[in-house]
Amino acid sequence: xxxxxxxxxxxxxxxxxxxxxxxxxxxxxxxxxxxxxxxxxxxxxxxxxxxxxxxxxxxxxxxxxxxxxxxxxxxxxxxxxxxxxxxxxxxxxxxxxxxxxxxxxxxxxxxxxxxxxxxxxxxxxxxxxxxxxxxxxxxxxxxxxxxxxxxxxxxxxxxxxxxxxxxxxxxxxxxxxxxxxxxxxxxxxxxxxxxxxxxxxxxxxxxxxxxxxxxxxxxxxxxxxxxxxxxxxxxxxxxxxxxxxxxxxxxxxxxxxxxxxxxxxxxxxxxxxxxxxxxxxxxxxxxxxxxxxxxxxxxxxxxxxxxxxxxxxxxxxxxxxxxxxxxxxxxxxxxxxxxxxxxxxxxxxxxxxxxxxxxxxxxxxxxxxxxxxxxxxxxxxxxxxxxxxxxxxxxxxxxxxxx
Length: 403
Ligand SMILES: Nc1nc2c(c(=O)[nH]1)N[C@H]1C(S)=C(S)[C@@H](COP(=O)(O)OP(=O)(O)OC[C@H]3O[C@@H](n4cnc5c(N)ncnc54)[C@H](O)[C@@H]3O)O[C@H]1N2
Ligand code: MOO
Hints:
Strand order of the largest sheet: 7-4-6-5-9-8
Bound molecules: ligand LQZAQKY5, molybdate ion
Radius of gyration: 31 Å
């Protein structure tokens, strides 16, 4: 049977994946969330002309000549404007962030003056507008400075605060529930019995999902029985998961029960088995509103499929505009053989040569159980189905893994 191409599988996973509902969150909670609406400034910044320096607010015409003498008539500090007007031959002491008083049109920095009581002698000619930030030079009330679908950076948060927004409208985070399966799994730190394996897949998947902004729920490890697997799936639904991720039990063995349990629960299956290595037995479908991604159990397969399918799905539900991983051009660091019908995602180390060329070195052993090689890799080198043998130095495409 022909396996489904990776691009079709990804399109199927993303079909109908609209941003989740909007919620208001405090600025501190909005970091890396996706804006649900355009946000306009609620105020003008600065609200009035303000001094950029510590010095004296003057009329430029009065202080255009070296050794002009002016009379000090008052002081303005940040937050405490001067009520009067600067008249001919007058100066007002001003500090950075102070509102430029009426009448003044320049600031002379204090290093360019000599003060003697109320007599201020100018030592550097004033220029109109100098050291003054005009009202609204940053932004004006009503300016739309943050757009819907923006993933908020720390600078955006500062801007939103400056625009006087204590809270922002963002899309709800997708909730990802992760269910492991397998009688052989024991938790890290336990003493594995004969033939037992230490549970590892979930650690990478939880961290990956969280780093993409999802909330995660751990549904634990289901034993290899239909009852236990079904109970795990139901816990995911009860938790209100937007996405249920299962790991293991996806293949054709007698103990691979995930698909059977999902079918018994009424899944609308979109696909099972894709033309990809690692990750061939991956499955996908919908259980009501909950999207299900059934990952293979091999640790590398579960991670690579999580990276390629779960991450874009989380991004789409989160509302972001950058959903897809970006492929980068690189050159092969060593020869690779011809590929078969499965699109290959080879674990590779990356080096940047002195001339800026990115070079990808596929690790020697690509078996999908090898966690050490996965951890040592910085990228996945993508080999198209039936790609011919390629030699070191040939162009290739890589997907960078999260640092
Ligand atoms: N006759 C066939 N056999 C297999 C096929 C096939 O097409 N025909 N596909 C192979 C491929 S490709 C993969 S990938 C695996 C995936 O199988 P399962 O999804 O059923 O995975 P399991 O059998 O449950 O586990 C595989 C392996 O991974 C270990 N594992 C499982 N879960 C975890 C976990 N949470 N943490 C750490 N390690 C885990 C498990 O102990 C097994 O060693 O099937 C091939 N077989
Ligand atoms: O697809 Mo499996 O993931 O090759 O080992």
